[in-house]
């Protein structure tokens, strides 16, 4: 299964358009959105091309291919614009040998792990900082932010292809970090 991960869009239309281009080009079966879809949040500057209603319109064209979780900047009002569910605090994707625990990162995080088993993958956003690393028997994966990267990083997204999770630069598609989910 091939999955594309995007987090922390924060209402940026150019970032949304690039993510959707990457999704179509990749041939991924699912676009997984890890929260903070439409609103920029009070602690963030407005991202380039801030246009939440237009972002909703673009994403709604792929509603049947999106799995999403709610971020700390998402609300019930946002859900009214979106044609895919995004108010769950977490979701799970079951692979043949692994479970992906999807969350935004403000409730469950590397510092506050949900109950996970050997081989599980914690997939989260929130920090806007890419992570692809193994911690004991658990993999931590954060695709970074497509719109407001932090920590000197570039806008990025994530891909799961076969057993490899990669963080990829949104603009030039350079691999930033990667980890195998099955050592």
User: Strand arrangement, largest sheet?
Assistant: 3-2-1-9-10-11
Principal-axes geometry comes out as: globular
Q: How much of the polypeptide forms β-strand, as a percent range?
A: 25-35%
In N-to-C order, the SSE pattern is EHEHEHEEEEEEEE
Largest sheet: 6 strands, mixed
Which runs of at least 5 residues are low in confidence (pLDDT < 50)?
A: none
Summarize the helices and strands and which ones pair or pack.
Elements: E1 3-6, H1 13-26, E2 30-33, H2 52-60, E3 66-68, H3 76-81, E4 90-94, E5 99-103, E6 121-123, E7 131-135, E8 138-142, E9 156-161, E10 164-169, E11 175-180
Parallel strand pairs: 1-2, 2-3, 5-6, 6-8
Antiparallel strand pairs: 1-9, 4-5, 7-8, 9-10, 10-11
Helix pairs in contact: 1-2
What does this structure look like?
The chain is built from 3 helices and 11 strands, in the order βαβαβαββββββββ. A hairpin with a 2-residue loop joins β9 and β10. α1 runs parallel beside α2. The strands form 2 sheets. Strands 3-2-1-9-10-11 form a 6-stranded mixed beta sheet, covered by helices on one side. It has a 5-stranded mixed beta sheet with strand order 4-5-6-8-7, with no helix packed on it. The relative contact order is 0.19. The protein is globular. It has 183 residues and is an alpha/beta fold.
């Amino acid at each position: 299964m091939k999955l594309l991960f995007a987090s922390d869009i924060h209402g940026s239309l150019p970032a949304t358009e690039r993510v959707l281009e990457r999704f179509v080009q990749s041939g991924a079966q699912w676009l997984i959105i890890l929260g903070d879809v439409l609103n920029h949040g009070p602690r963030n500057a407005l991202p380039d091309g801030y246009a939440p209603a237009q972002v909703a319109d673009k994403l709604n064209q792929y509603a049947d291919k999106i799995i999403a979780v709610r971020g700390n900047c998402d609300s019930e009002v946002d859900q009214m614009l979106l044609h895919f569910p995004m108010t769950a605090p977490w979701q799970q994707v079951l692979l043949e040998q692994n479970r992906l625990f999807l969350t935004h990162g403000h409730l469950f995080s590397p510092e506050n792990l949900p109950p996970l088993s050997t081989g599980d993958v914690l997939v989260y956003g929130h920090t806007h900082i890419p992570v692809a690393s193994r911690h004991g028997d658990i993999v931590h994966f954060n695709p970074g932010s497509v719109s407001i990267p932090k920590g000197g990083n570039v806008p990025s997204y994530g891909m799961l292809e076969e057993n490899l999770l990669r963080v990829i630069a949104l603009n030039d598609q350079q691999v930033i970090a990667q980890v195998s989910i099955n050592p």
